[in-house]
Amino acid sequence: MTSYESLLWNVWLPKVRQAVNNTWNPRHPDHIILLLESWHPTSASLPTSSMNPTSDALTPLLPSWLHANILDQLIMPKLEREAENWDPRTDTVPVHTWLHPWLPVLGERMETVHAGVRRKLTKSLEEWWVGDESALAVLGPWKEVFTPADFENLLSRSILPKLISALRQDFTINPAAQNLEPLFWVLKWYTLMPTHLLVHLLETEFFPQWHHVLWSWLCSENASRDEIAQWYLSWKGVIPPALIEEEGIARQFKAGLDMMNLAMVKGERMGGPMPPVPGPIALEKPGSEQQKERRRREARSDVRNSSARDGFREFVERIAAEHDLLFLPSGRVSEGGKVLFRLGGDLG
């Protein structure tokens, strides 16, 4: 241990330890994150020029081993205790607002905390009602934080069964007096639910009833082909456009169109049993090659979708470096759960 490191260990660290243990509230991460970033900036917060091996513009004042010691011995235990005390059913402050700011600093260390968050979310969702949109707000900020497998597992266990029940018990297709609210409860999960799960849900719980009603209407006396055509088109307007393009959904609507074309051919002779319709596409088995390939496609899509954001961040980092400005995590997050950065401050 050098003289400088000894000074930090014996004089500086006790003050930090006292502040963290006795004063710091984990639900207000701003000041402690700024302290750590000031003494030991993460690579994500360093301007581009400082990453040059020949540049010592932002040489950390805090040795890496001491920085790791603070994170492991002071920060993580207190965050873990606070997360364990968090109750999603009663706490009014969303947990992501005080955990997400730590992501650039703690990285993979956060997984132990995240595992506890997933357990608590799963437990709290046992009593959740599908019409309560608060679950969307609670889970939304975690979509890009949990791994795709963990997030899908959470939704499959806690959300999907409730959506199935809503379509089975609360939703009835009735052209004379249609109530779409239960279906809208389900479709609102389009932004979070993996597409293949939502497609399978509609294939198994929505379209069998839809086909039956369509066929019965086509076979009824004095059925208005124009009304049926408008009814058909109206349903295509209810389902999100991106889902309409999915193979499973497209096949079901195509089967309905085939029924309508058959009615045009048969005319008054229309009747009899409903023709066969496509069954649902089989869900992937966990760990199967099909699932792995889908996740690879989704990962490539995520990279493309985030390229514009990443490019802008790199642009800001470069401009900040050229003007000797700090570009650091602010310790705050947006309403959507994204980490916010601050720009400004003289490096010299």
Percent of sequence in beta strands = under 5%
> In order across it, which strands form the biggest sheet?
1-2
- Low-confidence segments: 44-57, 305-310
What is the count of structural domains? 3
Q: Mind summarizing the main beta sheet?
A: 2 strands, antiparallel
Let me know the number of strands: 2
Q: Please tally the helical runs, counting DSSP H or I stretches of 4 or more residues.
A: 15
Radius of gyration: 27 Å
Query: Mean pLDDT, nearest integer?
Result: 83
Secondary-structure-based class equals mainly alpha
Helical coverage, percent range:
55-70%
Q: SSE order in H/E notation? A: HHHHHHHHHHHHHHHEE
| N-C termini distance | 28 Å
Shape: elongated
Organism: Rhizophlyctis rosea
Pfam family, one: GCFC
Protein name: GCF C-terminal domain-containing protein
InterPro entries: GCFC_dom, TFP11/STIP/Ntr1
